[in-house]
Amino acid sequence: MVPALSFLAKVLAGLITAAGLDQLTKHGYMPQATYIKAALKALEKDDLDEAIRNYKLSVKKWRPSQRSEVTAEIISSAISLRLAKLESRLAELQAILHPPWYSLQYWRNLLPKNRDRLEQLRQEQESFAEAMRVLQKLQAKLEENDKVPQGN
């Protein structure tokens, strides 16, 4: 059984419309509220890259509104919170890895049985430092919109 020509035309029109909407959304031509909503949903899913991308699309073609500025502050505070947690953990690791020479921890670190544990802590410290650099780049990417003159 062959589907009717009108059915195929409707399906084709729907596919073309969906593809066109995707392209409009991808390039920032949809209303600003669309991108703000998507940015906040991405933030709920803990996806900072997607949240920043949607925020940048929201101000790409439109002047920043109060809602978009609040969204930027929410994203910025989420990044700042993560940075603060990482800094706190790095300070803890620093105290364990490099204690003062007169402390008991210093002498424990010299024991051979603690070398593996110390190496794991060093690797953890390096990974946290890398995560902080990535978050700082995201923060800078979010803030670079403030320096660019807006159209419309």
Describe it.
The protein is mainly α and 152 residues long. Helix content is 74%, strand content 0%. The protein has six helices and no strands. Helix 2 (32-44) packs parallel to helix 4 and helix 3 packs antiparallel against helix 4. The radius of gyration is 25 Å and the shape is elongated. Residues 148-152 have low confidence and may be disordered.
Summarize this entry quickly.
The protein is mainly α and 152 residues long.
Which helices and strands occur, and which strands form pairs?
Blueprint: H1 5-26, H2 32-44, H3 48-58, H4 66-97, H5 104-109, H6 115-143
Helix pairs in contact: 2-3, 2-4, 3-4, 4-6
Characteristic terms for this protein:
single chain, mainly alpha, disordered C terminus
Which consecutive residue ranges, at least 5 long each, have pLDDT under 50? Answer: 148-152
- Give the number of helices: 6
Structural class: mainly alpha
Count of distinct strands: 0
Helices and strands, in N-to-C order?
Answer: HHHHHH
**Over all CA atoms, what is the radius of gyration?**
25 Å
> What average pLDDT do the residues reach?
82
Shape: elongated
Strand content: under 5%
**Helix share, percent:** over 70%
Describe the sheet with the most strands: none
Alpha-carbon distance between the two ends: 53 Å
